Amino acid sequence: MPTYDYECPKCQHTWELFQPITAKPVRKCPKCGKQSARRVIGPGAAILFKGSGFYLTDYRSDSYKKAAEADKKSSDTSSKESSSSKSESSAKSETKSSKKSKDT
């Protein structure tokens, strides 16, 4: 059911009313009680996709998708470089420790 905006031109009172589409517009103002209220065109509501089948990124622009892909590739290469440097440093420390144990 939609929410409708109403306005009373006599007392300038505005309010929202949640009612079925088939309901007739309300005429009586809840503040002043006069029969001069009228339905106003409201801003409407945003479309909300709920459920496991909808994702925020489903309808992104092509330029956004390309930029995100480029960012992902650059982060993948930087993480590979950092992990390879960690492996090299751990291999060096293992070599040093094994040389020390042989000397003693």
Structure report:
This protein has 104 residues and is α+β, with helices and mostly antiparallel strands. 40% of the residues lie in helices and 12% in strands. The chain is built from 1 helix and 3 strands; from the N terminus they run E-E-E-H. The protein has a 3-stranded antiparallel beta sheet with strand order 2-1-3, with no helix packed on it. 4% of the residues are buried. The model has no long low-confidence stretch (mean pLDDT 76).
* Record field, number of beta strands: 3
Number of helices: 1
List low-pLDDT spans: none
What class, by secondary structure content? alpha+beta
Strand content: 5-15%
Strand order of the largest sheet: 2-1-3
Mean pLDDT: 76
Shape: rod-shaped
- What does the radius of gyration come to? 33 Å
Straight-line distance between termini: 84 Å
Question: Helix proportion of residues, in percent?
Answer: 40-55%
Largest sheet: 3 strands, antiparallel
Order of helices and strands: EEEH
